[in-house]
Design brief:
By secondary structure, this protein is α/β, with parallel strands linked by helices. The protein is 33% helix and 18% strand. It is globular and about 55 Å long.
């Protein structure tokens, strides 16, 4: 196996649940297509890569330089939805429990290719080789998926993806070497290899 680039979270940062306020849940009930979603207003961080991805897909986006203020903007009605990775949303909802206002949209999830990688000093070929060799080996022997399952199976289950309309967006900002065609490196509900 020769894996030059390995997305270490199998693209989970590109699976985005929508935070909204309970009084706006009715806006999302009939939505099943990107065109319908584009009528709503989304919130994102000013310089986050996700902001440009949403804009590239013709979504209406308002931004803030402050992470905390995005939740305040949502509560005050300055946006309809705040997309958050399924790796982030459980913790954030726990922190927001006292507001009794913010919740997740139960019937829609956004997804686009997004990867997190290990980076090392360009002078450390030895370290690069060791990490690459190790990642290739644990993919080959199945340990990568076992670790992935141990840390993320519950998070994925909590997202209830089978109950949601999956809206796929384009990400024009992926580096050219991103291995988007290697399905074994990416999580999808259909290609869920958590325990294999």
């Amino acid at each position: 196996m020769n894996l030059k680039i390995v997305p270490i979270y199998k693209g989970l940062y590109g699976w985005r649940l929508l935070l909204t306020t309970k009084d706006k849940l009715h806006l999302f009930e009939p939505l099943k297509t990107p065109t319908q979603l584009k009528k709503l207003h989304f919130l994102q961080g000013h310089d986050w890569p996700d902001t440009q991805i949403l804009k590239d897909n013709d979504f209406q986006v308002s931004t803030s330089t402050s992470y905390e203020s995005l939740f305040n903007m949502l509560v005050k009605g300055r946006g309809d939805a705040f997309p958050r990775s399924i790796l982030e949303v459980d913790w954030e909802l726990e922190q927001l429990a006292d507001t009794h206002t913010i919740t997740t949209v139960p019937n829609v999830v956004l997804t686009y290719p997004a990867a997190i990688y290990f980076f090392v000093n360009s002078k450390r070929d030895d370290l690069h080789h060791a990490i690459q060799t190790g990642l290739e080996e644990i993919h080959r022997n199945g340990q990568f998926n076992k670790l992935f399952s141990r840390y993320f199976a519950q998070t994925i289950a909590n997202a209830k993806l089978a109950e949601k309309e999956i809206i796929k967006l384009e990400n024009k900002h992926l580096p050219p070497l991103t291995p988007v065609d290697n399905r074994t490196l990416w999580f999808t509900p259909e290609n869920n290899q958590l325990d294999k």
